[in-house]
Design brief:
This is DUF4861 domain-containing protein. This protein is mainly beta. The protein contains 4 helices and 28 strands. 41% of the residues are buried.
Length: 388
């Protein structure tokens, strides 16, 4: 989750590499992803890759190894950062060593952070971690609607799957829906898909305002899974060019979800507009909105099928311009929008949900505090120094 600044404090290549991670906030930090540039590691003679080796990270003074993951942040097929998630108390630091170890045999287990294309359910794309799950819809589902074929979906909104277990459920739920008498619309103890998207923005779909209305794309047209793993899953999806007034919009989303986070990160490449809006569906319009433009977040907390549900958008680096609680009688088009600046053809935001029944959040106040702290953390990331 964090974007880190790394400082080189030594260059003795014969010694094991040691890093120090510092938390400059007065809140404890955990489940935040630190990214270490592989070029910095490869400059150390002791850390040059050989066949059958990978990196290992241990806290100084212990023998326990941290979970880590090699990650391809730009989707070019080559890993360029090493991920870890240290636990750092408020206003404190910890030191870690980075070495090499033998690559362990791969297992058939589904990783904690998982995503895939789902051709057996038309052409969804779904992703999840240990706290939340999502999906969105592809071109076959759109064509079914256009051809009046039952079972299609016409939407570029983002669907929330309300899971309440910490293990992967995507494959289990699709199998239950498609191959058994059960349904993922029923909660058998793991949660369910009862979140209505329709043509709304769901949880974090984008739009562009034209005069007094919002325009948006249809279903995604192409995709690529970049990675799955113990810390992060990521992928990209693209859309056919679409019209917003007299503008032609080109849109590509890089989406990632890290372990322990209720919010996915969206990096949107956008051509044709200098602003965009990120929406949260208002469903029955009976929930409560909370906004803080200066801190960069918006929240919607609503009663939902016998429980309560919070959705939110967090915008880093003072890129949030404002918000718009857009209410209309048109079906599914009422959304709470966060307004973003597009800088050099790109916008970044985080979006997700918290379901009361999952026991992760018990109230609107807890959910809003999570978003508030999330905003603080991404704008004051953990700092990493190489101290060998």
């Amino acid at each position: 989750m964090a974007v880190l600044t790394l400082f080189l404090m030594g260059c003795a290549s014969e010694k094991p590499l040691q890093i120090q991670v510092t938390n400059n906030l007065d809140i404890n930090r955990s489940f935040e992803t630190v990214e270490i540039d592989l070029d910095l590691l490869k400059s150390n003679e002791e850390l040059k890759f050989t066949a059958g080796k990978t990196y290992k990270i241990s806290e100084v003074g212990t023998t326990s190894e941290l979970v880590s993951q090699l990650s391809d942040t730009d989707g070019d097929g080559t890993a360029d950062v090493l991920l870890l998630q240290p636990i750092i108390d408020a206003n404190s630091s910890k030191s870690f060593t980075i070495g090499l170890k033998d690559i362990e045999d791969q297992t058939d287990e589904i990783p904690t952070c998982y995503s895939r294309f789902v051709p057996e359910r038309t052409d969804d794309y779904a992703w999840e971690n240990d706290r939340v799950a999502f999906r969105t819809y592809g071109p076959v589902a759109q064509k079914m609607i256009e051809d009046n074929v039952p079972g299609g979906t016409l939407s570029s909104g983002m669907d929330a799957w309300l899971k309440r277990v910490d293990y992967p459920i995507i494959n289990k739920w699709y199998k239950k829906e498609l191959e058994t008498d059960g349904s993922y619309h029923e909660d058998d103890g793991e949660g369910l898909d009862n979140f209505h998207v329709g043509t709304s923005r769901g949880v974090g779909g984008i739009a562009i305002k034209v005069d007094t209305a919002y325009q948006f794309s249809r279903n995604f047209t192409d995709y690529k899974t970049i990675e799955t793993g113990p810390i992060r899953t990521s992928f990209w999806i693209t859309y056919a060019p679409w019209k917003a007034g007299d503008k032609t919009i080109k849109e590509k989303k890089y989406i990632s979800l890290d372990r322990g986070s209720n919010l996915s990160k969206f990096r949107v490449e956008i051509d044709g507009s200098e602003t965009l809006s990120v929406g949260l569906t208002l469903h029955e319009k009976d929930g409560e909105t909370t906004t803080d433009v200066e801190e960069g977040w918006v929240s919607y907390w609503e009663p939902y099928f016998g429980s309560e549900l919070g959705t939110g958008v967090v915008v880093p680096s003072s890129a949030m311009l404002g918000y718009d609680k857009y209410v209309t009688d048109a079906k599914d088009l009422s959304n709470l929008y966060a307004q973003l600046k597009v800088v050099d053809g790109e916008a970044v935001y985080y979006t997700g949900f918290g379901w009361k029944k999952s026991k992760q959040f018990s109230s609107k106040e807890e959910w809003n505090n999570y978003l508030k702290q999330f905003a603080k953390k991404i704008n004051t990331p953990l700092q990493v120094e190489i101290v060998q």
